[in-house]
Design goal:
Cytochrome Bc1 Complex, Chain D, domain 2, 321 residues, globular, two-stranded antiparallel ribbon, 14 helices
């Protein structure tokens, strides 16, 4: 009993340390710790690629991952299968071949598709969603749904969702939401942030960095003729800002902030103010009232300009919704 009285303070210190850790570490952020790891206590247990069987089905899933990781090698300007994309890879936007937390991952795709999407005003399949990315982000030509390449990408995405129940979205799905700024996002301030924190990978002129044989990009172009188009999801500032805040610079510690929210909004404004392929789809947002607040192309249900929809401020706009 005397022993316990003498060392009670050790237990108290341990309790304080554990409590501090719980408070300081964001509950919805974490690191991918290898195949089979559980992300942030959610249902998504990432399947282990090493456990795939040496069967035609396993080979198709492996090919699907290869297509996501090295799209340009197969489908880019120098592609071994076809020449239908701009040289970027799917994983330039869907990080780590679609498994990174808040890195636009595929965790909930199989569990939530088919589903209605306001952008098209239709029920969309996974095939439609994949081709959307190819046409919009990779400025390419849609794959035939019966092609081996589409079947492989489909198989890989569905395999990643093996452990996710139907209609469940694990924490860390997609792109994180960040606090809206009170003022308009500032491209001029964003240029300074880009020069200081982004240009080392994406180049001062935003042209990106080629891999060793120039068959694709290690770090993708953020503007210019080989970058994503105006029809891509990342052309909306909220999507780009949320993406860069939680994922950039590329080698950041996911449990720590490198960019403030204000910096993320401003660098998004700068990047998306630069020239890129103008590719619009006439059927987008058939219900005008369902357009996102930061969708930069009219017509709109409200009276705010395209400029304000793109850069903000959005507070007054959102009050009318």
């Amino acid at each position: 009993m005397q022993f316990l009285k003498s060392y009670w303070w050790i237990g108290l210190i341990m309790i304080i340390v554990v409590a501090a850790a719980i408070i300081l570490i964001p509950s919805d952020l974490g690191k991918y710790n290898g195949p089979g790891s559980k992300i942030s206590g959610t249902e998504w247990i990432i399947p282990d690629m090493n456990r795939l069987p040496a069967t035609p089905e396993g080979d198709l899933i492996r090919y699907g991952k290869a297509l996501v990781s090295n799209t340009a090698f197969y489908l880019g300007p120098k592609g071994t299968v076809a020449h239908i994309t701009n040289g970027m890879n799917c994983q330039n936007c869907h990080l780590d071949a679609g498994i990174r937390l808040y890195g636009n991952n595929y965790s909930a795709v199989a569990s939530t598709y088919p589903k209605f999407r306001a952008r098209s005003g239709t029920i969309e399949t996974i095939f439609k969603r994949v081709n959307d990315c190819i046409e919009r982000s990779l400025n390419g030509t849609a794959l035939d749904s019966n092609s081996r390449e589409m079947k492989a990408i489909y198989a890989y995405i569905c395999w990643l969702g093996t452990n996710v129940p139907k209609n469940v979205k694990p924490i860390g799905t997609g792109i994180a939401e960040i606090t809206l700024p009170q003022d308009a996002a500032d491209p001029v301030a964003g240029k300074l942030i880009f020069s200081a924190k982004c240009s080392k990978c994406h180049a001062a002129d935003g042209s990106g960095l080629f891999n060793a044989d120039s068959s694709g990009y290690t770090y993708p172009p953020l503007w210019g003729i080989h970058s994503f188009t105006t029809g891509a999801g990342l052309y909306r500032l909220s999507r780009f800002a949320g993406y860069v805040k939680f994922n950039m610079p590329f080698d950041k510690d996911l449990t720590k902030d490198t960019l403030t929210s204000e910096e993320a909004w401003n660098v998004a404004a700068f990047v998306n103010s630069q020239p890129r392929p103008d590719k619009r789809f006439a059927g987008d947002w058939p219900d005008v009232s369902s357009k996102p607040f930061d969708y930069p192309f009219g017509p709109y249900k409200d009276s705010f300009s395209e400029q304000q929809h793109k850069y903000g401020p959005w507070t007054a706009m959102l009050k009318q919704r």
